[in-house]
Amino acid sequence: MRVVTIGGGTGLSSLLRGIKLYVPERIHNLTAIVTVADNGGSSGRIRRELNIPPPGDVRNCIVALAEDEAILSKAFQYRFEEGEGLKGHSFGNLFLTVLTKITGSFIEAIEITSNILKIKGRIIPSTAELVNLVAEFSDGKIIEGETEITEYGKTLKAKIKRIWLEPEDIKAPPEAIEKILEADFIILGPGSLFTSIVPNLLVKDIASAILKSKAKKVYIVNVMTQYGETDKFTASDHVKALYDIVGKPFIDAVVINTTLPPDDVLKRYLKEHSEPVVADAGTLSEMGLIVCSGDLIDKGTYARHNPQKLADLLVKLFEKLNEPASV
User: Fold this and answer.
1) DSSP label of 265
2) How far is C-alpha 281 from the geometric centre of its chain's CA atoms?
3) What is the pLDDT of residues 153-211, one digit of tens each?
4) By 3-state DSSP, what share of the chain in percent is helix, strand and coil, each rounded to 5?
5) What region does 210 belong to: left with phi over 0, alpha with psi -120 to 50, or beta?
6) Using CA atoms, how far apart are residues 268 and 135, in angstroms rounded to an integer?
7) What's the rounded Cα separation, in Å, for the pair 204 and 95?
8) Do strands 29-34 and 2-7 pair parallel, antiparallel, or not at all (unpaired)?
9) Which of 22, 158, 275, 301 is the S-S candidate for 139 at Cβ 3.0 to 4.6 Å?
10) Confidence band (pLDDT; 50, 70, 90) for 327?
């Protein structure tokens, strides 16, 4: 089967870390389409100072898909903690930056790096152009920048009313469109709804290709709401937000976690104004969606999806969506 994943941040890299285990036996073609709207940290500095797309999310996905996450992969994730000009930068970000400058192509830099780490799939940015994420809040305030949008949301003065990219007429790489149109399954998420998933859909070529694609579309709902972006959002609220961006319903199935994090983890998240996403399966079913749920929580100090559990459930879902009765 041919699978395309769309997103960014830690959510997408975590998904890839699990689903790559099915390559090439069950998944013979895996592609990750990654957002480049980040403007914070090392990626933001590289973008501002060197005028290239922010490499951070791409770097994380390359490492996640590496055949063997050994010393070379660890080197790409190494972050300098000292040194004037270097502090805060990761080696992988700098490596991608150097290759982009040498080749003159961000996409070619990704390809070369992917080959060096022998990744089990392909990574394509949603656009190779420089973009800014801009949001209008319900109080009329217009905020520019991924980081700034989330921070303003945390003030709880207003909620995101409208979101877009500037410039609005940016193009997706032809390779991304080709992969979407050829896919058997398209996965969106997990990850920050408005700053990791939506920016990809704001590239009009990508949204149009998703609607045209005959692939089954699956959305993975986050385990927790995100303070400043999806406060009080239920699972169906997440789906409706995606429909508003694309302009029409397009999702076939939704994956939901049904297990609460350990009490100590849950209490910490609640203090940070983040709570478990309500799995309103009834509403999702009424929307015509197949609901696939289970215990998807990872053990540890964070309320995140377990890569292996998520990948296993997704492959079972793919088989179900392929059954004649589900067509």
Assistant:
1) H
2) 23
3) 999 899 999 999 999 999 999 999 999 999 999 999 999 999 999 999 999 999 999 99
4) 45, 20, 35
5) alpha
6) 29
7) 30
8) parallel
9) 158
10) very low
